[in-house]
Specification:
The complex is a heterodimer. By secondary structure, chain A is α+β, with helices and mostly antiparallel strands. Chain A folds into two domains: about 5-150, Ubiquitin Conjugating Enzyme; about 155-195. Chain A has helices at about 5-15, 20, 105-115, 125-135, 135-165, 170-180, 185-195; strands at about 25, 35-40, 50-60, 70. Helix content of chain B is about 60%, strand content about 10%. Chain B has two domains: about 10-45; about 50-300, 3 helical TM bundles of succinate and fumarate reductases, CATH 1.20.1300. Chain B has helices spanning about 1-15, 20-30, 30-50, 60-65, 70-85, 95-110, 115-135, 140-155, 165-175, 175-195, 200-210, 215-220, 230-240, 270-275; strands at about 55-60, 85-90, 245-250, 265, 290-295, 295-300. In chain B, strand 5 (about 290-295) and strand 6 (about 295-300) form a beta hairpin. By secondary structure, chain B is α+β, with helices and mostly antiparallel strands. The chains are: A alpha+beta, B alpha+beta. The interface of A and B includes residues 83, 96 and 129 of A. Chain B: Pfam families: Peptidase_C65 (PF10275). Chain B: One of its GO terms (biological process) is proteolysis. Chain B: Belongs to the peptidase C65 family.
């Protein structure tokens, strides 16, 4: 059984210093706290700068004894992240997990992984080989993917917010609703109308 | 889907050019889920063999285990039998030191009803809480584990509504939702003590793993299932002020071939300086006795 009381505290704690960390965790859709959506900003000075990356988080029954399952929902070009499934190769999400860690510290580690790829321990062999053999092309591809997948969606969000606000919903509510449904405009509208 | 197909073709051409790459491709298909699943399968298999904390067995059961084994070990068990009456085995899941300590300590309190000791250790636990806060741990990461340990401590004292019997203590030690929380509590205590006195522990940590104290705590203390070494034992004993005796059962013997059983007493640092109230050594002899065989700890009962 997931320790939901703890998860609740974690969400509060994490979102309280969003201004500083840029890292956010919100429930994903249903009232069930076992499925969450995290967002991390791409680190400055990397090909991921300026991008906002969504991380799909599932909490196993044994949480916090078992690690949260994390997967990039935003497509990303990185040696330790699958370019197809978004699977992340990171020790603290496996055997180095500890209940002393939190969703926020885990997301910070994922963010640090964006800054410091480890191509010798790859999740995506194709990306890793490109990183090792042709670094410039790697940077170019990673940058292109960031612009194509991690920025449009965040630009898109602003448009959706504007649209829904024009329909007469309060902006704060629009934003939190959009977040909670993972940015789907139609779902957000449906939810806004039903509350 | 199109993207995925495109990608497969791309990686297909890669694999033709290099066999090494195809091996890496296979590894890439190993998802974290698969690894974790295999891990929990192994754990489940291990769980079938022995509970977290076993039943008390006469020491002869240990002798039976080595009946046709190494003569030095057989001889050492004979020597052990002179001083110790029984053994209680714990599961070899990497948490055996903490689990052994948990049971041995709570059982000691249950049997002695030593309220002074409970008050003393409660004060130390409070100190540890402050240590963790000052080290920057968020309270919600450790408060549940602290609360659960203090609850167990309370419950082994008689005369309250929460009081439990010896049988129930055994049951709770086998209940993952209690046992693992207490183990994790000790991991927090141990990590906090090592970080707080990082200058003292640094050379020992370097000797063991050649990493920084910070990294050691993150990778070898705080994750469940990471085995304990003398650094962990020293830190836990110091932090809680509880002396621990470790009896070593290994194949070592002196030059003449005569056999004796070595032990080492971990005496809390606070007790060595003064005989302050912060430690539990009014009696010089530790009341926690653990048997160490390379890679594993069990509980020993003196005669």
């Amino acid at each position: 059984m997931v320790d939901f009381a703890r998860v609740q505290k974690e969400l509060q704690e994490c979102n309280r210093d969003f201004e500083v960390s840029g890292i956010r965790v919100v429930p994903n859709g249903e009232a069930n706290l076992a499925h969450l959506l995290g967002t991390i900003p791409g680190p400055l000075g990397t090909p991921y700068e300026g991008g906002t990356f969504k991380i799909d988080i599932t909490l196993p029954d044994g949480y916090p004894f078992e690690p949260p399952k994390m997967r990039f929902a935003t497509k990303v070009w990185h040696p330790n992240i699958s370019s197809q499934s978004g699977a992340i190769c990171l020790d603290i999400l496996k055997d180095q997990w500890s209940p002393a860690l939190t969703l926020k510290t885990a997301l910070l580690s994922v963010q640090a992984l964006l800054s410091a790829p480890e191509p010798d321990d790859p999740q995506d062999a194709v990306v890793a080989q490109q990183y090792l053999r042709d670094y410039q092309t790697f940077v170019g591809t990673a940058r292109y993917w960031t612009e194509a997948f991690a920025m449009i969606s965040s630009l898109g969000v602003e448009e959706k917010v504007q649209k829904l606000v024009e329909m007469g919903f309060p902006e704060a509510l629009v934003r939190s609703t959009l977040e909670s449904v993972g940015g789907d405009e139609n779902l957000a509208l449906e939810k806004l109308c039903s509350t | 889907m199109q993207n995925q197909d495109g990608h497969v073709v791309e990686s297909g051409t890669e694999t033709i050019t290099s066999t090494k790459a195809s091996e890496i491709e296979d590894w890439a298909n190993f998802r974290d889920d698969d690894i974790l699943q295999q891990q929990s399968a192994i754990q489940a298999e291990e769980a079938g063999k022995i509970p977290f904390v076993g039943d008390k067995e006469p020491l002869s059961s240990l002798a039976a285990e080595y009946k046709s084994g190494n003569p030095i070990l057989v001889e050492k068990i004979n020597v052990l039998t002179e001083q110790y009456a029984a053994i209680r085995r714990t599961r070899g899941d990497g948490n055996c030191f903490f689990r052994s300590f948990m049971f041995a300590y709570l059982e000691h309190i249950l049997q002695t009803q030593d309220r002074a000791e409970v008050d003393r250790i409660t004060a130390n636990v409070e100190q540890c809480r402050k240590t963790l806060l000052s080290l920057g741990y968020a309270e919600f990461t450790f408060e549940d584990f602290f609360a659960l340990f203090l609850e167990q401590l309370e419950s082994v004292l008689s005369g309250t509504e929460a009081s439990i019997s010896h049988d129930e203590l055994v049951q709770r030690s086998r209940d993952q939702s209690i046992s693992d929380y207490v183990v994790m509590f000790f991991r927090f205590i141990t990590s906090g003590e090592i970080r707080k006195r990082s200058e003292f522990f640094e050379p020992f940590v370097q000797g063991l793993t050649n990493t920084s104290v910070e990294q050691f705590c993150k990778s070898s203390v705080e994750p469940m299932g990471e085995e304990s070494d003398h650094v962990h034992i020293t830190a836990l004993s110091d932090a809680l002020g509880v002396p621990i005796r470790i009896v070593y059962l290994d194949r070592s013997c002196d030059d003449k071939g005569s056999v004796s059983v070595n032990h080492h007493d971990f005496t809390p640092a606070a007790c060595q300086v003064t005989n302050a109230n912060s430690c539990a050594t009014q009696a010089a002899k530790p009341f926690i006795n653990l048997l160490y065989r390379p890679g594993h700890y069990d509980i020993l009962y003196p005669k």
